[in-house]
Amino acid sequence: MTIGTERLELILLTPAQLRLWTCDLAALEKELGCSYRAEPIEGPFRQVVEMQRAAAEKDPGRLLWHSFFFLVRKSDRVVVGSADFKAPPDEEGQVEIGYGLGSAFEHNGYMTEAVRALCGAALGQPGIAHILAETDLDGYASQRILARCGSIQMWQAETMWWKL
Questions:
Q1: 95 touches 87 (CB < 8 A)
Q2: Which among 95, 25, 90 has a CA at the least distance from the CA of 64?
Q3: Predicted confidence (pLDDT) per residue in 153-164, tens digit
């Protein structure tokens, strides 16, 4: 699945591509014809990617909910970030979105463009009623992205929760 926006191509990775992302980035770059310059694939983020890969391998028919999208800038085929839906929809038809951007690409509107497109695609799926997102209390950039995309803050405790 690929979603196009004005400046980005959002590419949903297959389970094999998720494996390459963590094990052989150069091979993945070659396969996709891009250059990865997004957030480093290390620490807790690597663990999240590996968990999504395992889920994608077990449930390949629901890849939208078990994989990551690469956010590829059309002008030069650079991967500026990634995004995912963290799990299949819950019983209320809600899915949670997560996303990250390479620091060199911040403040250019890429993530707002990507989140808007991904939320639109998800809300177009049968049974999807809402998109949820969690931000840190001091995650002002993420909070602005969500607000620009039409999300409203629903509740706050140790983190803030948003709903579209």
A1: yes
A2: 95
A3: 999 999 999 999
- At CA 83, angle to CA 77 and CA 84, rounded to 5? 135
Token pair 């983190």 in the structure block, residue: 159
Query: What confidence tens digit (pLDDT) does each residue in 52-103 have?
Result: 999 999 999 999 999 999 999 999 999 999 999 999 999 999 999 999 999 9
**CA atoms of 109 and 106, how far apart (whole Å):** 7
β-pairing verdict for 68-73 and 130-136: unpaired
pLDDT at 161: 96
Beta strand 68-73 with 78-85 is antiparallel
Helices (H), 24-152: 25-32, 43-58, 110-123, 140-148
Which residues touch 121 (CB under 8 Å, ≥6 apart)?
3, 64
Both tokens of residue 134?
């969690």
